[in-house]
Write a structure and sequence with these properties.
Strand content: 25-35%
Number of domains: 1
CATH topology: Spore Coat Polysaccharide Biosynthesis Protein SpsA, Chain A
Order of helices and strands: HEEEHEHEHEEHEEEEHEEH
CATH architecture: Alpha-Beta Complex
Largest sheet: 7 strands, mixed
Structural class: alpha/beta
Length: 245
C-alpha cells in the first residue's frame, strides 16, 4: 500500500489564480488578488513555495483578471516550472479552468490549490500529509479541511462533515458543519470524467464524488487563514508574526 501511494504521489499541480477578487476592495483595479502581499510576500508565492518544497515539478496557473501582472510576477520562477493557462477571453470557473488545463496535468493525481489560500503548517507539512494520505483505490479527491471554529478570518457555517474513515458529506442548506475546505486538494483525472465544456463550478463534481463515497478529507494540522478581504489580510499578518516569534 505504501509503495503504491509513493508511486502515485503528485508531481504536478493546478493553481487557481483567475478569480476576480472583488472583495479585496482596497486593491481592486490595481492588483490581482494572488499578488496581494501578506507579511511582505504575495499570496501566490506562499502556495508555489509550498509546492516546490513538496517536489512539484510543474504548476499550471490559470489567469484572467489583471493577467499580465501575474505573468510578469511568475516569469522569474524556476521551481516549480510555471505553465500559464490563459483564460483572458473567458473565465471558466473553478471546474472549467481545470478541465482546460488537464492536458498539462498528466494522467495521474495532481495537487489542486487556490492561489489565495494560506496556512501555517504543524509538525509535518500539510501537502506532504495529503500526498501520504491519498489512496487512488478509494478516492477521486482528497481535500485539506480546516476546523471552521479555529480558523482565522472565517465566519461561515462550514462546508463538510467528515466520517471516521475520512469520507465527506456536504453541508445541508440549514446545517452547520465543523470543517471548511482549506483550498488545497489532490484530485484525479477521473474526478472530471463527463464534466461539461466551458465554465462551471467544482461543486457538482464534489457532490457527485461524495455520493459515490469517493470524496475524502484530511484535517489540516496548524492554522488556516481565510484571506478574503483587506481586513483579513491584517489578521493573517498578525497570525504569521505571532507564530514566527
Amino acid at each position: 500500500m505504501d509503495n503504491r501511494r509513493i508511486a502515485t504521489a503528485p508531481t504536478r499541480a493546478m493553481v487557481l489564480a483567475a478569480g476576480l477578487g472583488t472583495r479585496m476592495r482596497a486593491f481592486n483595479g490595481q492588483l490581482p488578488k494572488p499578488l496581494v502581499p501578506v507579511g511582505g510576500k504575495a499570496l501566490i508565492d506562499y502556495v508555489l513555495d509550498r509546492l516546490a518544497a513538496q517536489g512539484i515539478e510543474h504548476a499550471v496557473v490559470n489567469v484572467h483578471h489583471l493577467a499580465d501582472q501575474i505573468e510578469r510576477h511568475l516569469a522569474g520562477r524556476k521551481r516549480p516550472k510555471i505553465v500559464i493557462s490563459d483564460e483572458r477571453r473567458e473565465l471558466l470557473g473553478t471546474g472549467g479552468g481545470v478541465v482546460k488545463a488537464l492536458p498539462q496535468l498528466g494522467d495521474g493525481p495532481f495537487f489542486h490549490v487556490n492561489s489565495d489560500t494560506i496556512w501555517i503548517d504543524g509538525v509535518k507539512p500539510n501537502l506532504a500529509r495529503l500526498a501520504a494520505g491519498f489512496d487512488a483505490a478509494r478516492m477521486d479527491a482528497l481535500l485539506l479541511l480546516a476546523p471552521a471554529a479555529a480558523s482565522i478570518g472565517y465566519s461561515g457555517r462550514g462546508d463538510f462533515s467528515m466520517a471516521a474513515d475520512g469520507r465527506l458529506t456536504r453541508r445541508g442548506e440549514h446545517e452547520v458543519v465543523p470543517f471548511v475546505y482549506a483550498g488545497a486538494a489532490i484530485l484525479t483525472p477521473a474526478f472530471f470524467a463527463g464534466a461539461p465544456a466551458g465554465a462551471f463550478s467544482l461543486s457538482p463534481l464534489f457532490d457527485r464524488a461524495a455520493e459515490a463515497g469517493r470524496l475524502c478529507g484530511l484535517r489540516l494540522e496548524g492554522v488556516w487563514m481565510h484571506v478574503g478581504t483587506p481586513e483579513a489580510v491584517q489578521a493573517a499578518e498578525k497570525t504569521i508574526v505571532a507564530h514566527a516569534t
